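Q: My labmate handed me this sequence with no annotations at all. I'd like to see what the chain might look like in three dimensions before we decide whether it's worth expressing. Could you predict it?
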Amino acid sequence: MVRFTKVLVASLAFGLIETTVAIQHVLKGGKVCRYMPGDPEWPSVETWNKLNETVGGRLIKTVALSDICYESASTYDAGKCEDIKNGWAFTEIHARDPGSFNSPILQNGTDPFQTERPSSLGNLPAYTIDVRTWKDAAAGIKFAKENKVRLTIKNTGHDLLGKSAGAGSLSLWTHKLKTLTAEDYESPRYTGKAIRMGAGIQGHEAYELAANLGLRVVGGSCPSVGLAGGYTQGGGHGVLNNIYGLAADQVLEWEVVTASGQLVVATPEQNKDLYWALSGGGPGTFGVVMSMTVRAHPDGPVSEVSFTFTDAGISKDIFWAALEKFHTHLSSLHNAGGQAIIAIIDNVFMLNGVTFPDKDIKHVKTAIKPWLEELTELGIQFQPQFTTYPTYFAFVEKRYGPLPNGPYPSSQLSVSRLIPREVIEKDNHQLTKAFRKASEAGPFFVALTSLHLPNPAVENSVNPLFRTAATLWVTTMMWDFSAPRSQNLAAWDTLVTEVLPMMKEVTGGDEGASYLNEGTTRQADWRGAFFGGNLERLEEIKGKWDGEGVFWAETGVGSAGWKVEGGRLCRVDKEGGRSWLKTEL
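A: Here is what I predict for the chain of 585 residues:
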């Protein structure tokens, strides 16, 4: 069984955070903005202390995680600083900290690799509530509304778009909500095994509990991600999708604190509009999720084939022909019950597995044989590894370990695009050329996760184009903390302004779709790309449940009426539709 450690959080002394932001930034041009530390209207020490009493002493004044690395800081510790630096690019170190988050672009100089101690908290929250009950979240919502302070929600902080970041905000930290139980669930639409998990449960924790009970649950390949947060609320893809569907398709109910401070349960029968919106409509904008209950499936063996090869001894054309040949066999692999993940970095082609749940090695070899024979005919040298794991958790532990971080750094920036099946059928060669061009455009790697989704048992707000896609294509840059920030920003600019248009052109242009969990806030077409034809209904639901705009997340539903300017969240002129906003907070 999974064991959790109880953490006692000591009460801290609270005071105002120094800042150079002047009050005229709030009122310039008559704009309505959230207050920031240093503004005359910023809540007093006494007001913050009162909130601290309300939440049982679990209000935490932010100290940057990187502060320990600077001799001028009272927390300086050279040994611990090395540990922080070594873990900085991965999730877990940020997940354990109340305010820290992964997005390197929004860290904006608050990382531990600076030559001088950062002069401000940057995009870190001003204060954090260590949420242990729904009343803690309700108290934070009430405080933010009454004091016109920006509100953010964080679980692990593993969000490539930085939705859990927010300068001067009050953050609701749900990471300590670690309840995890199995139950026999019964409803008009589903009767069977289920797993109820608190918002703080990470993938590896859920997988282990389920395996101990002879079950499996749908989650991602990054084991440290919080399942009930942005992962499932944004859709949630992984290697079990082709059997069971996306993570959002598994949800039986949500337990959520709304903008009115009420705890409600959302199911396909009760508060069904909120259930629909939370299941794929994106995180941080409809409410504070306290827990979710998902379908649990019978566990069993998981078999896979994997290999790696380089361009040594072959031309670049042949190297990339391997991907083109793969796509010609993708439909048959899907029909055989397989799901593939491929990554190409420079001259390295990595099949990170074609995974076949509930199949044996003989089945895998038969299914993969036609593609492997074509690779051999091309003169490509590779050694396929065939493996069967007794459980899904055993597969995750080996393939995506070491736990809890997993093998891949999370300090990265990505753009994504769903590839429709007809693109592979009609334009496979052009698609391969686009992959190659994207890979060679900068210090990027391209990855694909194949998709062949079953229809969901219950309708939800996942972008409908997911249902007709054959592949999710992601192009990613790893943030290099040893390089100047300007160098990283230049690569990021290339990724957004040059590579993303390449990807769009070959996958449907403005009619195509991107995955909102692996997208960018700089994507001009994000409304349609992330939400497709669901956007109008999502905005109506946003208006019903949060007409005051308490919850805000960049590129989230209802975000068009607000904008971060100089770190401050302010109202802007109507753009792209803002009919959901009823009143000013």
